[in-house]
Design goal:
Elements: E1 3-11, E2 15-18, H1 19-26, H2 30-37, E3 41-43, H3 51-63, E4 71-77, H4 88-95, E5 103-107, H5 113-127, E6 132-141, E7 154-164, E8 169-171, E9 176-179, E10 185-186, E11 195-196, H6 198-220, E12 229-232, H7 237-245, H8 253-266, H9 268-273, H10 280-291, E13 300-307, E14 311-319, H11 323-326, H12 333-337, E15 340-341, H13 344-352, E16 362-363, E17 373-379, E18 382-387
Parallel strand pairs: 2-15, 4-5, 4-6, 12-13
Antiparallel strand pairs: 1-7, 1-8, 2-3, 6-7, 8-14, 9-14, 10-11, 13-14, 16-17, 17-18
Bound molecules: coenzyme A.
Length: 389
């Protein structure tokens, strides 16, 4: 049975900053951000946008035209969740009016969560013929103003409907895995800003990639030449390139050129949105499908997922005959083109205006309401979600 991604949705808030302007404001040479780190713009989420509202928006797009009576599983993968107990997936379930007879929950393993959800959904569909699953990867990456990680912030969500006989991508059962308890990146419960050992985390990402790539190659007998494109988790776009370059010499010059060109197609959206943690690998997938004109049905893609802490997984996926109808070229270009650019001072004000980490009530600023769903405020320690009408 072929199982995989039948439909995709992508959402990012309609506000961004230009990273050359941020560099100037921070006294940094702009080329460091755009060339050294590989980011041009960064999505900015006002406080009315969180993993629930962004995830619901992406899921609304992914579910368009789907038979909801087949849906048996909803997974929200996130590492910037809004409650330590209740699954944000339940708010999304209500906002989208999904059937009551479903498994609905949230899962976490840093940026690996989206892949954990995708693999769990594939197994669920295999065990329950005729059923479908919805996987949402939604995150706001926050490191703090004027920190080293600020340039790698971002916000957005990717949603995937997983089904038998998928229209876009078959997810193959060929994973190579590596897990180890390391302390490269984490976020204590008392703060919404992540802590990272930047250099160490970069080294570990590459070490985990090299490990799972070697295992995958040995297990499947495949080489780089068997892959039309290699996709990477993208905390910033230079990161995947560093990993790819550690193995590129295994390929012929022509294959190297092809893989580098496809890599460029895969990072177009991340360069403008930034890190969306659990969704970053799948943002790269959407970007590749919408910005590469040389892909064809039957092409095999290689995907490297990494979640700090840490888990690495490499697997392949095969493009299906209807992929181009399901993912039109440049389909999400308008979502990015129609965003509003913010001055750095405005971004700093929005960054400071976040919901309270204490029992007080809070009202999100209606002037910044955007997208199909909003978190209008917090009343009596309960978050208030509604359609943005
Ligand atoms: N022009 C072009 N490139 C420049 C430059 C300039 N003027 N100035 C610096 N650079 C390059 C550096 O040479 C370096 O390139 P390299 O990585 O290829 O060596 C790159 O820009 C970054 O410079 P560096 O000094 O290493 O930056 P930093 O110490 O400020 O670190 C981050 C920045 C973003 C890499 C770091 O904060 C980080 O890793 N944060 C997040 C960690 C993370 O996301 N972890 C999760 C992994 S999944």
């Amino acid at each position: 049975m072929t199982i995989g991604i039948d439909q995709l949705g992508l959402y990012t808030p309609p506000f961004f900053i230009d990273l050359r302007e941020l560099a100037t404001a921070r006294g940094v040479e702009p080329d460091k951000y755009t060339i050294g780190i590989g980011q041009d713009q960064q999505a900015v989420a006002p406080s009315s946008q969180d993993v629930v509202t962004m995830g619901a928006a992406a899921a609304k797009e992914a579910l368009a035209g789907q038979d909801l009576s087949k849906l048996g599983l909803l997974i929200l993968a996130t590492e910037s969740g809004v409650d330590a107990s209740k699954a944000g997936a339940l708010y999304i379930h209500r906002l989208l009016g999904l059937p009551a007879s479903m498994r609905v929950f949230e899962l976490k393993e840093a940026c690996y969560g989206g892949t954990a959800g995708l693999m769990m959904a594939r197994d669920y569909v295999a065990a329950h013929p005729g059923k479908t699953a919805l996987v949402i990867a939604s995150d706001i990456a926050r490191y703090g103003l004027a920190t080293g990680g600020e340039v790698t912030q971002g916000a957005g969500a990717v949603a995937m409907v997983v089904a038998e006989a998928p229209r876009i991508l078959a997810v193959n059962d060929d994973s190579a895995l590596h897990a180890d308890d390391i302390q490269d990146f984490w976020r204590p419960m008392y703060t919404d800003q992540a802590l990272a050992r930047g250099k160490y985390s970069t080294e570990q990402y590459i070490a985990f990639f090299d490990e799972v790539w070697a295992t995958y190659r040995e297990k499947t007998g495949r080489t780089l030449a068997d892959h039309a494109a290699m996709l990477f988790h993208l905390p910033y776009t230079k990161m995947g390139l560093k990993a790819l370059k550690t193995v590129l010499a295994e390929a012929t010059p022509a294959a190297q050129e092809r893989l580098l060109a496809q890599y460029q197609a895969s990072i177009q959206y991340s360069r403008r949105i930034g890190n969306i943690y659990t969704g970053s690998l799948y943002l790269g997938l959407v970007s590749l499908l919408e910005n590469s004109e040389t892909l064809a049905a039957g092409d095999r893609l290689g995907l490297f997922s990494y979640g700090s802490g840490a888990v690495g997984e490499f697997f392949s996926a095969t493009l299906q005959p209807q992929f181009r109808q399901a993912v039109p070229l440049h389909g999400h270009a308008p979502l990015l083109a129609q965003r509003k650019q913010l001055a750095i001072a405005t971004y700093e004000q929005l960054f400071a205006d976040s919901w309270p980490n204490d029992p007080s009530d809070y009202q999100s600023e209606p002037a910044w309401f955007a997208g199909p769903f909003v978190m209008s405020g917090v009343t009596g320690q309960e978050r208030q979600y509604r359609a943005n009408d």
